[in-house]
């Protein structure tokens, strides 16, 4: 899939996630505010209806008394009948209102309101607990209604005494009870209303916390998905970058696994192709170089022979200037020969041809010899050398000539890249089955970015140009190959303008060198 579609889908996914969460929040808030409104409305209505009911009861009572007063009976009966119906209708309204109050607060099933289910259940229980009282009032009213109806019949039949008796004995206590119970119901609803308002307040608080948790969860999910998406997209880029870094240190055998099916995948394939070609041309370059160097050997040999012959045949006839010229020719000859040897050596090391001639030697002696060889250079630069050998004799199995090359190169580098008057530390020690050589200078140092490349063939860091030091850039390559062939390790630490320390660790005997196990330890 193209990169742009991948990004588009990722964005859409995040937007979808946020929209769902936002909708949920809107529903939640709406539900809570709706519940609050309904709740307040029903409570207030119930209280208003109940107050009205008490009033209706008083009106009913007054009209009930009036029918016993002599006068226009039928008009009074009509009024009583009306008051009775009015009370009855009012009572029905109260009952409906109370029923609604108890049923309309269940949380919406689709929303997070189910979290509040427990809360609203307790609220419903409170409302349900007024039910017995309502039932009791209902029964009392039915009884009173019967008494009133009977009284009206008796009054109509002009049996006033019987009617009065009925009122005194049955209806009046009934009215009192009804009045008390209506007041009780009113008080109860008032109390519950307060409790419910408190519950609602905590419901709002909970909603706020839920909103906060949703927000936090959303931020977390968004961050996580952004991280995963970014990782999915950048991982192949990272792999490609690593491959480029490896190629920068002349490792041309790069393969990029799991190439994505997008532009980055195409780039990776193109890069693999490029590294293959570079590998080919590198091989070609090495072959040409060694062939060319090889070809130089015989003319150089002739020059040497001819110079020696010339020098011998004209031995006594040469004036000082001519003798100096011959010395210059000889000097340049040996420089060229060294160069050729180094190039040919490195070319054979490329192919892994390092034949080691192991010998048991005193490494202290070997290092000292190299130091003595380099002493003219050291003196010339007025350098101080601190030598620290952990023992007079440190024995190891090595290829002496090759090991000398390593020490020679590291030491000559330390001398070359130090300014005059500085100090060089040479430390040699042994620990268990390992040999450790540290050569530390106070020279110009190596820029941090270039450190990974200095062991590469013909690599010379920018610092060497800065102080115009000559060299081929092959010394460290050869040294590192020799150390590797001995089953050892070479490490470097360097700070620009402070100095450089090279550490060589080698196994002291051939068996360990060949097994190489210590490297993993
Ligand atoms: P050659 O050894 O072939 O004569 P060279 O000394 O330049 O040439 P290497 O010994 O391979 O090459 O070192 C590679 C580069 O590493 C050097 O050119 C230099 O930039 C840097 N380098 C090596 N040793 C030191 C050191 N002790 N201090 C500062 N830079 C160093
Ligand atoms: Mg060197």
How are the secondary structure elements laid out?
Layout: H1 3-66, H2 73-103, H3 117-128, H4 131-156, H5 160-248, H6 263-313, H7 320-350, E1 359-362, H8 363-380, E2 384-389, E3 395-398, H9 400-416, E4 423-431, E5 434-441, H10 462-466, H11 475-485, E6 489-495, E7 499-507, H12 510-515
Parallel strand pairs: 2-4
Antiparallel strand pairs: 1-3, 4-5, 5-7, 6-7
Bound molecules: adenosine-5'-triphosphate and magnesium ion (MG).
Adenosine-5'-triphosphate (ATP) binds at residues 409, 413-414, 417, 441, 443-446, 454, 459-461, 463-464, 471-477, 500.
Q: How does this model look, in words?
A:
The protein starts with a helix and ends in a 6-residue tail after the last helix. By secondary structure, it is of the alpha+beta class. The protein folds into 3 domains: 3-233, no CATH class; 263-350, Helix Hairpins (Orthogonal Bundle), CATH 1.10.287; 358-515, Histidine kinase-like ATPase, C-terminal domain (Heat Shock Protein 90, 2-Layer Sandwich). 69% of the residues lie in helices and 9% in strands. The protein is rod-shaped and about 180 Å long. Adenosine-5'-triphosphate binds next to helix 9, helix 10 and helix 11.
What would you say about this model in short?
The protein has 521 residues and is of the alpha+beta class. The protein contains twelve helices and seven strands.
Portion of residues in helices? 55-70%
Whole-Å distance between the termini?
45 Å
The number of distinct helices, counting runs of at least 4 residues, comes to 12
Q: Within the largest sheet, what's the order of strands?
A: 2-4-5-7-6
Please trace the helix and strand order, writing H or E for each element. HHHHHHHEHEEHEEHHEEH
Strand content: 5-15%
Mean pLDDT: 86
- Helix- and strand-based class? alpha+beta
Largest sheet: 5 strands, mixed
Unique ligands: adenosine-5'-triphosphate, magnesium ion
């Amino acid at each position: 899939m193209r990169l742009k579609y991948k990004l588009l889908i990722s964005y859409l996914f995040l937007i979808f996630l946020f929209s769902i969460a936002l909708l949920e929040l809107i529903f939640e808030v709406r539900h809570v505010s709706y519940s609050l409104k309904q709740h307040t409305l029903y409570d207030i209505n119930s209280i208003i209806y109940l107050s009205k009911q008490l009033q209706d009861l008083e009106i009913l009572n007054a009209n009930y008394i009036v029918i016993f007063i002599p006068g226009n009976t039928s008009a009074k009966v009509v009024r009583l009948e009306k008051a009775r119906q009015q009370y009855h209708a009012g009572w029905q309204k109260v009952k409906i209102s109370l029923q609604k109050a108890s049923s309309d607060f269940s949380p919406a099933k689709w929303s997070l309101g189910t979290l509040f289910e427990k809360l609203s259940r307790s609220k419903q229980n409170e409302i349900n607990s007024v039910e017995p009282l309502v039932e009791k009032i209902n029964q009392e009213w039915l009884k009173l209604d019967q008494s009133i109806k009977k009284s009206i019949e008796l009054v109509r039949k002009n049996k006033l005494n019987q009617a009065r008796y009925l009122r005194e004995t049955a209806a009046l206590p009934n009215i009192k009870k009804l009045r008390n119970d209506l007041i009780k119901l009113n008080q109860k609803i008032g109390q519950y209303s307060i409790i419910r308002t408190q519950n609602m307040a905590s419901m709002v608080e909970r909603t706020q916390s839920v909103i906060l948790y949703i927000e936090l969860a959303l931020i977390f999910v968004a961050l996580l998905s952004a991280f995963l998406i970014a990782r999915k997209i950048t991982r192949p880029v990272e792999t490609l970058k690593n491959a480029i870094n490896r190629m920068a240190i002349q490792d041309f055998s790069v393969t990029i696994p799991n190439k994505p099916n997008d532009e980055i995948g195409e780039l990776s394939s193109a890069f693999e192709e490029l590294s293959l070609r570079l590998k080919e041309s590198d091989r070609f370059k090495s072959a040409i170089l060694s062939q060319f160097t090889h070809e130089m050997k015989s003319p150089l040999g002739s020059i040497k022979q001819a110079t020696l012959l010339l020098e011998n045949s004209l031995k006594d006839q040469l004036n000082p200037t001519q003798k100096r010229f011959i010395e210059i020719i000889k000097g340049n000859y040996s420089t060229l020969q060294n160069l050729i040897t180094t190039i040919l050596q490195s070319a054979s090391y490329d192919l892994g041809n390092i034949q080691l001639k192991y010998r048991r030697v005193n490494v202290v002696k070997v290092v000292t010899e190299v130091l003595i060889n380099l002493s003219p250079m050291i003196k010339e630069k007025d350098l101080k050398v601190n030598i620290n050998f952990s023992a007079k004799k440190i024995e190891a199995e090595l290829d002496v000539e090759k090991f000398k090359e390593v020490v020679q190169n590291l030491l000559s580098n330390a001398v070359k890249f130090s300014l005059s008057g500085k100090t060089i530390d040479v430390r040699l020690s042994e620990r268990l089955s390992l040999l450790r050589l540290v050569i530390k200078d106070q020279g110009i140092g190596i820029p941090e970015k270039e450190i990974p490349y200095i062991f590469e063939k013909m690599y010379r860091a920018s610092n060497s140009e800065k102080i115009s030091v000559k060299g081929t850039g092959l010394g460290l390559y050869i040294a590192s190959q020799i150390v590797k062939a001995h089953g050892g390790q070479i490490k470097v630490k360097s700070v620009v303008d402070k100095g450089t320390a090279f550490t060589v660790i080698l196994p002291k005997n051939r068996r360990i060198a060949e097994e190489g196990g210590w490297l993993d330890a």
